[in-house]
Amino acid sequence: MSVESPGPSHQKSGFRSLFANALRPKKSRQTLRKSSVNRSTPDLRYAARASTDEGPPPMPELAPLQAHRLKYQQHHAQLDSQLGERRDYTAMIHTLGLLDPDDRYLPAQIDNDRREPGEPDMEKLSPELWTRIARLLNPADAASLASASRTLYQKLGKAPFAALRHPDNYTYRINFLIRLDQSLPHHLLCFPCGRYHRRTQEGLERLKPSHVINPLFTCPHAQNPLNPQPRSRITHGRTIPFSFVQLATRAHYYGPQYGLQATDLGRRWERDGWSHTSRFHIHEGRLLMRVASQTFAAAGLTSSAQRMLLYSREDYWPFFSACAHWRDGELMPACKCALEHIPKPRETAGLQGLEHKVKDRISGTRFDPNSIVTLCGFCRPMRRCPECPSEYLIEIKLAEDKSHIRGSVFKQALVVTRWTDLGDGTSPAGPEWGAINGLKDDYDSFSHSHYAKRGIASIFEAAFTADTLPGQRVISMNPKRKKLGERGHGWY
Predict the structure, then answer these.
(1) Is 218 in the same domain as 276?
(2) With CB atoms 3.0 to 4.6 Å apart as the test, which of 6, 50, 76, 454 could cross-link to 91 if both were Cys?
(3) What is the DSSP pairing of strand 187-190 with strand 195-198?
């Protein structure tokens, strides 16, 4: 470009101007250089020292949430001048999440420290007035009132506890001692004595046969036949003391240190040709028991042979588990009917054997004495005792006899299973325990709230397996409600 050519005056032509413009720094670079020169790098240590000398920054007067609450209350305080109620319902609902909760509308707390204690109020009443109040209560409730606090004990004295020692107040004494069960994990309530005894086999209690002395605590009436310990018969030679029902239910209510688990009470034993298996389960605070008894039975037994198989000659009770009402009703006739369904072996010699073979070939069947036995409509249904919570199921099963000389042999066996409710372990005077031992006459198992719609066997089996029992009709063991006892002749 020539010198005379138009253009800006600062632009120069020539070879030197070309290189000068190319090596000239850009305007942006000059700007950064100027800023870096003008702005020096701050010293953080100096800034921290300066802020320390001046002090912390001033705090705001109110927290942001509290300032928002005050602002909202000022702008939305639409109150009725006559009633003082908020007219804007939208604002009223919104303020529920902003305003602080009012402690006056909270439920009363028992452990609230601001609650005024009641001890001074008890001190205001005279001992004569408290004595008159205690006289309006029964001996058990009066003793509970006296043991509620130190102040009440000083007002009432030892008179409520002395009244419990009277023989006529034995029931009230037991009711009062039962209320102390939770505070005594290492003791057991002895009902013949009416006092607590220290457990001598704590955690190691086990059910044993009746002829074995198995004391759970030291009691002066342990071997007194006139005042025995409450117990219930399981089978011939086996009983369950009420103390074990206490141990199982206490462990369920309060913890394992109070007793035993229900599964630890189960046992297996054999006696007089019968094998027994017991199992226990707690349902809704009550101890349930299942006892399955089995014995091998031959076919075609006479009436006397059936009695020898079913009854003990010592006490004339059944070898299997039964309640106190087993003589009344159809339990024993149903067992005898089931024995008659065992198939009899055929005569294979001579013309009788040839006749049976011809009949089997014509009918297309083969006789098998070990086939599955089907019971009739009389002995097949499950029986429930109407006077106590007990259910019975009678079956004929094919079982293996391992005691045979030539090896294991399969035979037909009679199996009688009993399910029963032993109660909640509170007292031997309870409805379930008293009913199964024949101590109560006002128990109706078919109208009871627990088993009116569901059987004891169904409740028990559902707790251990998902499989259910075969569909069985549950009928009354004594449909005519005749109470003949030993005077009747059907039981034997």
Answers:
(1) yes
(2) 76
(3) antiparallel
Examine the domain organization and report whether 154 and 227 are in the same domain: no
CA atoms in the 13 A half-sphere facing the CB of 403: 6
CA-based torsion, 123, 125, 128, 134: positive or negative = negative
For residue 267, what are the domain limits? 212-341+376-487
Rounded to whole angstroms, the Cα distance separating 141 from 144 reads: 5
Residues 88, 91: Cα–Cα separation, whole Å: 5
pLDDT higher than threshold 70 for residue 88? no
Cβ neighbours of residue 429 closer than 8 Å, sequence gap 6 or more: 171, 439
Residue 459 lies in a domain: yes
Question: Which H helix or E strand runs over 37?
Answer: helix 27-38
Instruction: Tell me which H or E stretch contains 164.
Output: helix 159-164
Q: How far apart are CA 292 and CA 268, in angstroms?
A: 10
Task: Please tell me whether residues 270 and 321 are part of one structural domain.
Answer: yes
The model's pTM is: 0.71
Task: Check if the beta carbon of residue 294 is closer than 8 Å to that of residue 414.
Answer: yes
C-alpha–C-alpha distance, residues 143 and 437, integer Å: 31
- Do 255 and 326 sit in the same domain of this protein? yes
> Which one-letter amino acid corresponds to residue 218?
T
| Last-in-domain residue among 155, 179, 203 | 179
Residue 7, C-beta contacts closer than 8 angstroms, at least 6 positions apart:
1
Residue 234: count other Cβ atoms within 10 Å of its Cβ.
23
Number of domains in the chain: 2
Question: Are 156 and 218 in a shared domain?
Answer: no
Which whole-number Å values give the CA distances from 171 to 73, 140, 428, in the listed order? 66, 9, 11
Condensed to tens digits (0 to 9), the pLDDT of residues 212-262 reads 888 899 988 888 888 889 999 999 999 999 999 999 999 999 999 999 999
